[in-house]
TrEMBL record:
Species: Rhodococcus wratislaviensis NBRC 100605
Domain of life: Bacteria
Keywords recorded for this protein, A-Z: Hydrolase, Magnesium, Multifunctional enzyme, Nucleotidyltransferase, Repeat, Transferase
Region Disordered: start-end pairs: 1-64
Protein name, per record: Bifunctional uridylyltransferase/uridylyl-removing enzyme
SMART domains named in the record: HDc (SM00471)
Segments forming domain ACT: 648-722, 770-849
HAMAP family noted in UniProt: PII_uridylyl_transf
Family matches, as CDD domains: ACT_UUR-ACR-like
Amino acid sequence: MHSDPNGSGKTGPGPVAKATEPGPVASGGSDEAADLARARRQLLTGGSETGPGARNPAGHGRRLDAPSLRHALVDLHEFWLTTKGAELGIKPDSGFALVAVGGLGRRELLPYSDLDLLLLHDDMDPAVVAQVADQLWYPLWDAHIKLDHSVRTIPQALQVADTDITAALGMLEARHIVGDVELTNLLISGVRRQWRTDIRNRFDGLIEQTRSRWERSGEIAHRAEPDLKSGRGGLRDVQLLNALSIAQLTDGMPGLGPESPGGGLALAHRRLLDVRTELHRVAGRSRDQLRAQDADEIGAALRIGDRFDLARMLSDAARTISYSVDVGVRTAEHALPRRGLARLRRPPVRRPLDEGVVEHAGEVVLARDARPAKDPGLVLRVASASATTGMPMSASTLNRLADNAPELREPWPKEALNDLLVMLGSGSRAVAAIEALDRTGLWGRLLPEWGAVRDLPPRDAVHTWTVDRHLVETAAYASGFTTRVARPDLLMLGALLHDIGKGRGGDHSVVGAELATQIGRRLGLWPSDVALLTAIVRHHLLLPHTATRRDLDDPETVERVVEALGGDGVLLELLHALAEADSLATGPGVWGDWKSSLIGELVRRCRLVMAGEVLPAPDPLDPEHVALAASGGVHVALVPADSPHTYVVTVIAPDQRGLLSKAAGVLALHSLRVYSASLGSAEGSAVNSFVVSPRFGAPPQAGLLRQELIRALAGELNLLEMLTAKEEEARESQRVAAVEERGEAAVPVQYAQAPPRVIWFDTASPGEIILELRAEDRLGLLSRLADAFDTCGADVRWARVTTLGSSVIDSFCLDLGGGDTRASREQVESAILGVVPLTKPKKQEGSGGE
């Protein structure tokens, strides 16, 4: 069988054709490429002979390192091909050109990679073309060198590139070897011009092909035996970025420089190439999947260390490439030429999300007046907005923050801690936000201790993720359990830090507890909360280890647990929730009915031994406020709190039904976030104090708030309708952006991560009952809750409201007005559950299941 000058060119060996017309001919022989094959073997074994004309940059008799080996292989094959081409008459004016694609085209030839060659001709006689092709291909076949070849004219090659994305991607990397350079230039310029002009029509297919490849090959960073070529974060992804760059949609190296974790895209690419080079050398054949049994040998050859060190380096490189691809694809989507009426569409609007943070073109970006160099909390506000909206942070925004944002002073301001908690409370959406921060070096600034666990591979095969990703996944699962505990903030922080002691030697629980103390103080937690966070990290394995390894019927087992926890019921419930989140984030099958029932029974028995729960109680009133209450009238004061950008709003007014709902509604309508509130009464007036922070800019004047409250009490403002309209406006803005920028028909409902929970407490006072609500926050939630109480005829005697990140822990002392207490409770509970955020209709699956 001869080479087909008009077909794919992938033909097998057969008898050499004889020329029927004059042309560039030469005698053939079965051993013509034997010297090439011999030289290849000697390069791999470190032999002294490298073949005719080949250059061994490492010298004779010495094993070449991975980069030198690739360079030597490229030199060797180029020398042989140029020599052979000249022998066959493939010269500048011959009408033939030999073009390299694949590894040789990229100058990344690996030991056992196929030789990808394209023989171009200027519409030459088919017989002559066949003879030249046969005399070029057959020596390589005879020498058992794997060959992927084709023979085409320029129009034929362009037609193939136009209809086959894979072929087009290969020809985008074409490189001239020998012959008529003008032919090669016509091919390369033609393929690239065709690629650029038609990228709008081919982009969706390119991305679909890429995602299908990821689904088949998995994620390199978290695979025990990763596919270095086709896996997510692999070499094919670097080629994808190059293709998008050639299409002039990206700059080819988006978002990461040498100072970022992973050392930037170029270093990550080179590291993967080195590992794949050694993989070929160890396997003795072409191989893309890194087998576990080869990892130690490859790690030693690259002077990295053992298989765990190699896995850590691969994770770092692959995650760097993955992040770069995410940025590159988003950038390319925005840069795509618009079609039809879309070209006339007005530019995307900039919708405010937080102070200094806006949405633009489907990404979270900095506002025009943002000053990152003077705003240390901006990093967390940007990340929080990204996690809560599900929109990615712009690469340029992250780069600007990485270059200019100062470190947060210690202890952190309350707003910064709150933004961190909001991000963690967003569940699976926090994973991408933290990954983006980490790849750009910003996460390490917030948590310097993270460096020891970054990309750290697990020592146990049951673990799915690297240690750092496991911590983030645990926090994502824990966000679904926040309403089970009294301290959702400490649950999420404990989940994020529970394994922070790994990678340092010693008992990671003990080491981690010391680090948790250090981190807790930096975050600005109260000393008692620092102690509780430390205890969570120190004892995060206590419940699962005790429940699965000890006899629960032995009273000493329970006593030891209670003693270790100091009889702290809050710590017990936090460890219970963390044990489930930790197991779910470990891997499939780690959490099940057996483990759940054992830990649940241990917790139940510990609670029986511990003291009962303490009832919520009202905060004491300020004597000055009591005096104002006695004077009557409506008073509104707004004064700075003990933290920057935080204020205390005090509302004193004659107690009447609807006052709390309207006061909270006025605050929400003016974009004041309520962090905490203490609600009481004195001298016939309500005394309500709110700790707030403005979402944008400076807070409104106290006089304006008072005027709005008076109007609302007079019935001139329907605050609930206005709050609902404000929510709908924000949602509609998201919907329009999704349709215009991403082609989505609608914005997915942002479900609450954890289901709401209502807890009732009886009191010693007749007619009083305490309700504790644990739920996720929403715009104007306190106003809506107070209105629900009013609708049910429940009078709020006092209340304590706390917002921890995106979670609320609200306690209300209610007078249900006598009558059927059970029926009244059910009515109130139904009413308040109607105003809290929606929860998923099925069981929370966390980020690992989405």
